[in-house]
Design goal:
Length: 533
């Protein structure tokens, strides 16, 4: 049993038909019937022919989604449909792929589904599962954190049971003082370890904004604590240890941090800990690095950099590599030695070149040099390489491969990062237009300080916060003419203002759908009141 997300269009335009007819619907209307298109390469050829203006990345991405929809999704699998209402529908797939050449809205690619529940409140879904649903793809699998079993529970009307490996103890650390007490209680060889996500939750925050980072660092410094690696590095689900870094040395003259360095816990529990410890101790020849200095967008901030890719071992047959690449739809595979270190990469291009020289070429002959990024590298330094070659391998502190970043990963990350800004920009544009159309300039100028009033020529010169002051005035609210509750609207506007301000501060952690919900709701309200494009 597997679980999938199949969206009803970028803006949910196929949502009503999907729920009413009991089907999953995807776009790509220029494509014909895919029932007799058996392989991924065949689908790729069909996509390329139907959309000749699209580049290799887009064709490959669309191919993967269509292959999943046509061949990988099976009857009995669960499917999730995110709704425009910010609720969620869950169903069970009941049939195979179908193509409807004639329908009211044109050709359609469909799968039959029995909707088991159509109105699940997102509040009943744990943040990690909501995050997994946040991909911008139309068709993708929910495969992490026992997603299928959790979706099955939601389908039965039960709340999300959460991750089976969830750290119940971490959940009990509901305030900083409890964290301090637990660190003090533990011996140096049994450090407190938890995910960065759970660590931030102790302070009631979900993302590493500069203000939150500064507060947490000050609290740790005050208590003589340190996190290893720094909590500002790695993905939000990376593990860290919390140590009594300021405690006096033990009988051997060693600090808690040094004692931790000398234990096997370093290599066994936390990837990248050793390198971080060296920086903290100043052993790399430079100044000890503080946590506020390490706020940057590292390679390790991408989830794929911390997920071991599929690979072949040195000495395997070339047929093995080719078979795996076809089965998984990969363009390349890393070749690793017995210690997990990179010995090269095999790709369709390198295989083709090797076969031109020798039709019986071995894996070794088809293996070419692969580029490796360190987990602690600045991601920006590698974007050009990833764009040019399509991927880069990631290594840990032992120089073992621990992940791979592809151009697709960058594209998804870009979409996740840009979406909140686009949403807020549309809110501002709609407010500006309505205010300019319906409120005289003299009343717009009245909400700004007198010394600035002469420089205000339209609503475009207002700050976001000024709209709240402007629309509090009864005369201005009446001029807008909206038949909605003023108090609720102004509260939503203020919440959006705070969200917008937080976006202006760097954080290596993505904004989740749940965090976007208030701004998305305000935008939907504005679209309803002002339906112009």
């Amino acid at each position: 049993m597997r679980a999938w997300v199949v969206r009803a269009g970028e803006n949910g335009q196929r949502e009503h038909a999907a729920l009413e007819e009991g089907v999953l619907l995807v776009g790509w209307h220029e494509l014909g019937d895919l029932s007799d298109v058996p392989t991924r390469e065949d689908i790729k050829a069909a996509v390329a022919a139907a959309y000749p203006d699209e580049g290799p990345y887009t064709v490959g991405n669309w191919t993967g989604q269509l292959y999943r929809f046509v061949h990988e999704i099976q009857p009995g699998d669960f499917v999730v449909l995110p709704l425009k209402s910010w609720r969620v529908a869950v169903g069970r797939v009941t049939g195979g792929y179908e193509h409807q050449a004639e329908s009211a809205d044109g050709p359609r690619h469909i799968r039959r589904v029995e909707w088991l529940v159509k109105d699940i409140d997102r509040q009943s879904i744990q943040p990690d599962l909501l995050d997994s649903m946040g991909s911008l793809l139309t068709v993708f699998e929910l495969s992490r954190f026992a997603a299928a079993e959790r979706i099955a529970a939601l389908a039965e009307g039960k709340p999300d049971p959460g991750r089976p490996d969830a750290d119940e103890f971490a959940a009990s650390l509901t305030e900083p003082v409890k964290l301090y007490e637990e660190v003090r209680r533990r011996a140096a060889d049994e450090p407190l370890t938890l995910s960065i996500r759970d660590f931030l939750a102790v302070w009631g925050v979900q993302r590493r904004y500069p203000a939150a980072v500064e507060q947490i660092k000050n609290d740790l410094d005050e208590r003589g604590l340190v996190t290893v690696p720094p909590f500002t590095e790695g993905s939000i689900d990376s593990k860290i240890a919390v140590l009594a870094g300021g405690a006096e040395p033990d009988a051997s003259g060693a600090s808690a941090v040094t004692r931790f360095t000398d234990t096997s816990v370093v290599s066994d529990m936390i990837a990248g800990v050793y390198d971080s410890l060296q920086r903290l101790l100043g052993r790399d020849g430079g100044e000890p690095e503080t946590e506020t200095q390490t706020v940057a967008y590292r390679v390790s901030n991408l989830e794929s950099a911390n997920r071991m890719p599929e690979f072949v071992r040195v000495g395997a047959g070339l047929k093995t590599a080719m078979t795996l690449m076809v089965l998984r739809g990969y363009s390349q595979l890393p070749v690793l030695d017995e210690d997990g270190r990179l010995r090269g990469v095999v790709s369709w291009e390198s295989i083709g070149r090797a076969h031109l020289a020798d039709p019986r070429a071995s894996l070794e002959a088809a293996t070419v040099r692969g580029q490796e990024a360190d987990r602690s590298d600045d991601l920006l330094d590698w974007i050009g390489t990833i764009q040019q070659s399509g991927f880069v391998l990631v290594r840990d502190h032992d120089h073992k491969v621990c992940g791979m970043i592809t151009a697709s990963d960058l594209t998804v990350q870009f979409g996740i990062r840009v979406r909140p800004f686009v949403l807020v920009e549309e809110i501002e544009q709609r407010l500006r237009r309505v205010v300019d159309q319906r409120i005289p300039l003299d009343r717009i100028r009245a909400v700004v300080p007198a010394r600035r009033a002469s420089r205000v020529n339209s609503a475009a010169n207002l700050t976001f916060g000024a709209y709240g002051h402007l629309l509090k005035v009864p005369e201005n609210w009446a001029a807008i003419g909206w038949a909605i509750d003023q108090e609720y609207f102004l509260a939503a506007l203020e919440e959006c203002r705070q969200f917008r301000n937080s976006l202006m501060h760097f954080s290596p952690d993505p904004v989740t759908d749940d965090q976007l919900l208030p701004a998305q709701g305000l935008l939907e309200l504005l679209r309803s009141m002002d339906p112009q494009n």
